[in-house]
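Read as amino acids, tokens; as here:

___
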Amino acid sequence: MTQTQSDPPARRGNAFRPYLWGGAALLLSVPLIAMQFTDEVDWDLFDFIVMGLLLGGACGAYELGTRLSGHWAYRGGFAVAILGGFLMTWVNLAVGIVGNENNPVNLLFFAILVVGAIAAPLGRFRARGMARAMYATAIAQGLVTAYIAIAGHGYTFVLAGFFIAVWLCAAHLFLRADEDAARAGAGD
């Protein structure tokens, strides 16, 4: 079957798929290997299940992003957003961002991720909508940071700045994808 003018452009497959899933498997195996050589790493089955779910969810979400658009900036924005969400969740579950992992204030960081997870489908996963979702996530990060600072929980602004920069970087990449699509539609 040949592609006609009314058919959507063919999307390129995800060339990074083997590296993505292979890297996730390698990352999951690191604690298992480390446990053979040191007592400092002590994971149980639950730890491996949680990390496996986190890695699988992150890789699966990136797969979704590659299916939604073949544009490099869109895929890059998706990758940056997923990586940021993964890192925030990992740190929060492992040691906690504020105090330790049992501090209830840490639940606010999951709320930040929920903002992005709700805003992305509201924007129909289109580049401009995804940029808005990332701006909303950055604002949520700033509001949580302000609350924690006012409440005196001892949260580091360096870490907050890092995550705000992650969300803004993803937003910038999504906007780039939107601008390139607009230029292509205008015939430039």
The two ends are 29 Å apart (CA to CA).
